[in-house]
Fold these 3 entries.
Entry 1:
Amino acid sequence: MLQKPRGTRDFLPDEMERRRLIERRMREAARRWGYREVCTPDFENLELFTMKSGEGIIQEMYVFEDKGGRQLTLRPEVTAAVLRMYVNEGKVLPKPIRWCYFADCFRYERPQKGRYRQFWQFGVELIGADTPSADAEVIMLADDTLRSTGVTFDLHVGHLAPMKHLLSGLDPGDQRAIMAYLDKHDPQGLEAALVEKNLTHLAEPLAALGECRTVSEVFEVAGDVPERARIEETFSLLDSQNIDYRPDFGIARGLDYYTGMVFEGFAKNLGAENQILGGGTYRLAHLFGGDDVASCGFAIGFDRVMVSIGDFTLAHEPVVGVVCTPEGRARALEVARAFREAGIRAEADLMGRGMGAQLAHAAKTADFAAVLGKREVEAGTVTLKDLHSGEQQERSLEDAIAEVARHGAC
């Protein structure tokens, strides 16, 4: 028996309905802020991602050569693809551009709970606005989007400028090495690296920076960095809107990618693999042949959100099983269509069962049975049977539809 590929999943109807519900909530949150959905190809030129992240990322990707000899890859993330699309299609659009996406991505890595080889991301890209207000809007939208899902989370917000200021005297290689240890929260590795590079004088301020819980404390540690006014205004805007976040200037993600503000979200019930959100300001378009436009965005790990939320009861929508005699099949199709046009799910027999077998099956899958015997067909009525209470009554089709609709979603 063939099995699904490792790191992928099958989703049965109940789970798909839960996923679509949360997906709709996220899309609606972005819509309210003026972000419109875009879609990019599932596969892109390999260079799109190596140009941004280097050749080392290839081992984590699904890379293949097409029949024309072109090196392609299934997308490992969506931001680069969206910025490629901006360069190809969107440079003349009025700015700022507010785009969002919901897409599956692919990475060749060891599967584990909440981490798969095919996974889904919801994300936002704000292109062409380089202001504290733009930074604050994206953070507030991220907060709004996560709250719409019902997940419980902690939001951390920081800025790379103070840390870069502390490391400004180092060559780029040493900066990257130290930032990598900070990003991995590896104090032992960081201490060893600082000793090896004779940079132990940085240990205390780097540790203190990660402990700062107010913006003013940050500048006491890092000094008066050039971006101070922008940082203060961004955090002031967040505070004015009562956003529940923790200042975290120890965030060290993406030194070569992010240019300033960074933020992360952590689910409170996922243990070690609990990051569900990451974002910040960046500049990518110029790498793909476009202008050096400021951008800000985030991506939410949809699968981890769903793991965090767990199973929940879906609102039940009534189902009608249309039961008929052989001579009533044409009328049964008309009745089923009338229920469906009223927005009610209706299922007709496809197995050629007798009336008794049809009712027995409907009792397993439906809430009501619309019975069409010879009398109902001739009179243009239906006998509507409540399969939970057993009550039944012959009604006009319009009254039967109204009765089922009265029960609605519950």
Entry 2:
Amino acid sequence: MKTIVIANNKGGVGKTTVASQIAFYLGRAGYSVIAVDLDGQRNLTSALGGTRVVGNALQMLEGGEAPSFSVDPGEVVLIEGDRDVPVSSDDAVLQSTVAALDGLDGADFCIVDTPPTFSALVYGALLTADFMLSPIELKRFSLDGVEGVLKAFVQVQEINEGIQFLGLLPSRFDAVKKSERETLLAVAESYSNLLVPHAIRNRVGYEAAEAEGIPVFEVPTASGKEAAAEFGAFFDWFIEAIEKED
């Protein structure tokens, strides 16, 4: 099983959009998927509203054990979020997170959505991960946020030597705004080898998909179709990048 952790220490960058749509697209491609919502805001749980729930994040972390379940090919199952999931620097939280996520098995992919902080919970998730993907918003001071993401990755890699950094994914990108276009160029110049060659635009189609708990390729509007084509292109890149690292 390949575990991909979606992480950034800044909120509002589209982590849940990316995590939920990756899970849906993997399912459509025939892969079995476990989606794990570690964020107390439970946004991934809402975005995967019709998905079969196989566990609760808080119960899993408190026991340090993964729940027992099976996943069919092409199915996405959910370990739902809990508002009381701890966000702290406690070593016990880190250890229980590692133990619980290490125990997950039986699927092709595990997609983990995380809270907007590099807490013990998030570090624990990264210590079990095969890949880290970081959506970034192209606002002012975005470069400072990128440096925090990369610092966290380097720290994790010292212990989890096998983890790979998939890249910085421009998210909620508004191409109409000159400031965001300029920031994208600045990020590309500073981190050319780390920037994902796709961007997730700020589209109503994604909002509709999350509100209804469905994949964006099922949103029938023009914005939904544009978003589906855009995310589909990113997904093709994503699968190729994963397979390249095998």
Entry 3:
Amino acid sequence: MTILDELKWRGAINQQTDEEGLTDLVKNKSVGLYVGIDPTGDSMHVGHLIPFMILKRFQLAGHRPYIVIGGGTGSIGDPSGKKSERVLQSMEQVHHNEAAITAQMEHLFGQDGSFNIVNNYDWLSKMSLLDFLRDYGKLFNVNNMLAKEVVASRLEVGISFTEFTYQILQSVDFLHLYQAEDVQLQVGGADQWGNITAGIDLIHKIEGADAKAYGLTIPLMLKADGTKFGKTAGGAVWLDPEKTSPYEFYQFWLNQDDRDVVKYLKYFTFLSQDEIADLEKKVETQPEKREAQRRLAEEVTAFVHGKEAVTEAENISKALFSGDVADLSANEIEQGFKNMPSVEVSKEKRNIVEWLVDVTSIEPSRRQAREDVNNGAIRINGEKVTDVNAEIDPSTHFDGKFVIVRRGKKRYFLARVK
């Protein structure tokens, strides 16, 4: 089975420019290929992972992946998928984002020398306006550019000349990598088809019609309900652990619909066909166990954040389900209780009733607080408290950073110690 056969089985191919030619190429050599990403933000989100999972599979199959950080194109902005003009970022912000995205790529692809990260600012910034117009602009027919979906979709609302030229710059990227690094394949999302084919056309015009350059796009990822993949009520699911904690990241995958989970196992994990087939059967016969979702969460979280993050996420999940939170670390508390009601408290020791009412406002009145304590409805740091004369000492657990209160069976509160 070739890498292309595997991608077909995984449902990861949308369009190819020359399927027969590309099939022959991957059978006969270690192919140079690339995926580009513009540093429009300082972190990727799970939607960005889709083409880079394809790049990773090529890497594991012995091919030569290149990641193009768009320091040049990112300062302009890709009109693909956008209904209006992008707001230009300062070069200082672009450089900050470049560094952050590069660090994420190095984590995902390893540092064993089997892949390369390049920045198109290095060659685009050296091109003069006259060189751009004479060497490349002359080779692009405006009528053809207007017909590309990426431009045509914007004509009604308008597109600036800056964004209009984006496909020329991306084409120059492909040409540069073809000439300098023997890169023959560009991979991108479905919305990149026009940009990719423009690059192949440029290579053919400069290098000859027989030049072996290919393009491959990935299907648009939609959930079973028709909505866009990767979005939650809280927004995008980021790879940066400061934006989306590893626990939240794990929960995102764990909570996937039965109708989507097998598709995501194929796209986002490196499990074998037999392993995925076995999990697919379990979705059909034992959906309540959610084994496929759990395996999906484990695999993707380990890939992005490491195995330790999986252990932490599972510890948090078990603790929240059982109420036994005493053994969690301060870091696990920070992740697991991030979106729960919270209040700041001092390090001062206080009577539990006073603390629940006057300090935290967790209880509405002292009468209610005493009643809940007497009835065993209050747990502090995982331990049931039934003595109304008990004392709260915020320094005793979780490195003195937090006090966790559970009122009833499911209502949690987090007190952050100042």
